């Protein structure tokens, strides 16, 4: 029987190290994955409206493109405040690189925050599945966006974005599966790593990057 496991937020290298130790104790197969992946730091982003807007900004974009667009966006007066964002018109926001869909999604988020329908403090207090359900109940927020916000902005320790293609490929390769798991299959597989699913996701993203850089390994 395992001792009571830590469920602290993933907001420091020490926290990641403690979660990783507990994670490998739960699933010793991950020790080999970690040997190949190497150390990895926590990944953090702003909390609240600004953080969720940044996640939306980065959807389906390369890191470089997302960073460039975000730098222009956050320079807009009021852009990082929900009330301030509502004062920006479509032309201004799309002028920095937001698509129409992203402009509308962030506007819907801002409206929900201003109306009191989206409470980020409440989000952080909920268990993983409930937190995802709470966020995805708001227009324009899908499971991946909710999970990435919870991981990187809220530091939630027990979220695994099973819809992420890189994670699907990395888990299949790292665990020697016969085929790449579907989203549903990966959700079920990741339950074994609870309450450290976010650390497992960080581990497999790092593994994915390491394996892609190795000759003869195609992911």
Automatic annotation (TrEMBL):
Query: What SUPFAM superfamilies does its record include?
Result: DNA-glycosylase
* Oxidoreductase listed as a keyword: no
Segments traversing the membrane: none
Which EC class is the enzyme in? hydrolase
Please state the span of the N-terminal signal peptide per the UniProt entry.
none
Which InterPro entries does this UniProt record tie to the protein?
Alkylbase_DNA_Glycosylase/TA (IPR051912), DNA_glycosylase (IPR011257), HhH-GPD_domain (IPR003265)
- The protein here is known as DNA-3-methyladenine glycosylase II
Species annotation: Devosia geojensis
């Amino acid at each position: 029987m395992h001792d009571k496991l830590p469920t602290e937020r993933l907001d420091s290298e020490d926290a990641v190290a403690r979660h990783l130790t507990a994670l490998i104790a739960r699933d010793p197969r991950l020790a080999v994955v970690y040997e190949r992946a190497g150390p990895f730091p926590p990944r953090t982003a702003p909390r609240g409206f600004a953080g969720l807007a940044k996640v939306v900004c980065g959807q389906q974009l390369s890191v470089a493109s997302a960073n460039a667009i975000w730098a222009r966006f956050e320079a807009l007066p009021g852009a990082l405040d929900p009330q301030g964002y509502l004062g920006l018109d479509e032309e201004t926001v799309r002028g920095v690189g937001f698509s129409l869909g992203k402009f509308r999604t962030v506007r819907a988020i801002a409206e929900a925050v201003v109306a009191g329908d989206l409470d980020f403090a409440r989000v952080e207090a909920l268990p993983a599945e409930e937190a995802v359900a709470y966020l995805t109940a708001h227009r324009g927020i899908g499971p991946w966006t909710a999970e990435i916000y919870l991981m990187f902005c809220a530091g939630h320790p027990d979220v695994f974005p099973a819809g992420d293609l890189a994670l699907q490929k990395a888990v299949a390769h790292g665990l020697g599966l016969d085929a790449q798991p579907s989203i549903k299959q990966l959700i079920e597989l990741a339950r074994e790593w609870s309450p450290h699913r976010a650390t497992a996701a960080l581990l497999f993203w790092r593994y994915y990057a390491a394996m892609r850089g190795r000759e003869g390994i195609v992911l």
